[in-house]
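Q: I'm writing up a methods section and want to include an example of the input and output format. Could you take the sequence below and give the corresponding predicted structure tokens, formatted cleanly so I can copy it straight into the document?
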Amino acid sequence: MAEPPPPGAPGIQSAWTTGAKEGVGTSAGTRSKIWYTLGQGILNEVYYPQADLADVQDLQFLVTDGATFTDEEKVATEHEVTLADPDSLTYRQTNTDKDGRYRITKTYVTDPQRDTLLINTRFQVLQGGPLQLYALYNPSLGGSGMGDTGDQLLASDGKVASSLAASSGFSALSNGYSGTPSDGFQDLTVHHTLTHRYPSAETPGNLVQTAQIPVGTDTTFTLALGFGDTRQAAADATAASLADGWAAVSASYQDGWHTYLDSIRPPVIPGLEQEYRTSAMLLKAHEDKSYRGGFVASLSIPWGQAQNADACCTAGYHAVWARDLYQIATAEIAVGDTAAANRALDHLLTVQMRPDGSYPQNAKLDGTPVFQSLQLDEVSFPIILGWQLGRRDPATYQKLKLSAEFIVQHGPATPQERWEEQGGYSPATIAAEIAALVCAADLATANGDPAAAATYLRTADDWQSKVDSWTYTTTGSLARHGYYERIDDNGNPDDGHDLVIANGGGTWDERTVVDMSFLELVRLGVKRADDPHITNSLSVVDSTIRTDDLWYRYNHDGYGETADGKPWTGVGIGRLWPLLTGERGEYALAAGHPSTDWLHTMADTANAGGQIPEQVWDREDAHGFTIGKGTGSATPLAWAHAQFLRLAMSLSAGHNVETPSVVAERYTRSRS
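A: Here is the clean output for your methods example:
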């Protein structure tokens, strides 16, 4: 007698997973359009067919003896993660039962020829037995957790479909709805066996697929998760990848990464070779394979476990910010992948740029804006990047000229600064604007446009002479001497106006809120490193927002976990940002005090998979967090890895490789 349709549709509310990834992988080529992420010992979001579309919540194993217990892999085991091959993004998770009964070892690659993820799995019974093993797959196809339907182990939602298969085959399977009696996880938790086997789930909802893998005391098999625009295409992909076999596919995957690493500059800092290689590979992995040059900020969704995933599409960090893309592109130049940097500029100019020369705050890979504000540093950075790449051709110049004209007309105050929360006069934004206008002037001269060059230089010089009068307070309470504010609302840094901090940070006298972003003035060549206003401000930020060699974005920041470690959902406490350590390292180099200590501090914040986080925990170990290690915000952050690579190459070169010489020569008479 056939099973009735699974009850409980559409299931409980769906969510994504933590932003704290332990591993990220994709093939080095462009034919395979699939990215995987790992966290909590299991597979997290998988992206397909673009790096801005998540299609999986998670995939893990359930282990049971069939009678007395059922374990959920992510909860019941101790997790280890390593790079199985240090020269490719081949991650291995080793999960050992806390009670010592079994071990699961999983190694991940994507098929370079197909849209398939392969998971080579070894299941070992360490004591007792026999045990049963089930795969628990929670698709979230098309960027949402609702709307999926399933038949056998095929699933689809709109134009995205998936197929789950195994080299060993499956001995049982079921489709159901998450959090209901038809959910295989619920069934196994209660009964320790699949009491219902629903072959299909045709009502759209929060689909869960469960499949039993036949295992003994020591069994190795390959799990395949394939994608396509139809169920048949997804099934064909998994079948072909399994037919080729783990050995051939993994070798091809690793060869692709080996070839890439051979094409860039080798590591230059002793003791940090692996973090250099991992960072270089992670940057490349964040580039989309259809929208070339479109690097997303992070293949993660900050605090995704607290984000409602029922509807498409959650605004995680899998989007393109012009500022982050600039950081990535300058790191690519530094490591020798100039082609990637040129693709990044082309993406900005052809996909993101608006007709007036401005850029959206951030955008999907196809250029559709996500957040709706305007940040003038993001209008500035593409000009600087164009100059750094030597893009003096008339077509590129005409586009960059639009941005330069926009800056002249709308600067120096910005609707938002680089922390995306406040408008006004920002030292960091103004530094980018000045540097961009000087670079634009040089490009204008090369293109026979002296009138534009004169306008840009006149404006840049004016703003360079006034930036301190707009942003450097002499009446603030944080020091007897003056210092740069984080931002000023009206260009009068001594009037003590209120600054309302986002994310529940409170309302404060703007003179009492500081950050370290004024160092952009030095790194971009607008001011000397020994400028008294710079050094005065450093002493203030060090006494206000520094912990060891790590810094907060600014005091009173509310963007982070709550006091009791719960995910940020609009209010919290901002934590320490490792990328700021790299910025401080670049300043130290400009000031004539080069040190690799800054790089080592950044590397120490990375997890076992070499992923450098956006934020690290700033308290004693608590709530599952370790002091100095990543929180649930975003790991890896491409900007942080870019900062690590650029500082490493700058230390090797003896100067900051990002600093535009044309700017430094105009304002500091020396190369930083």
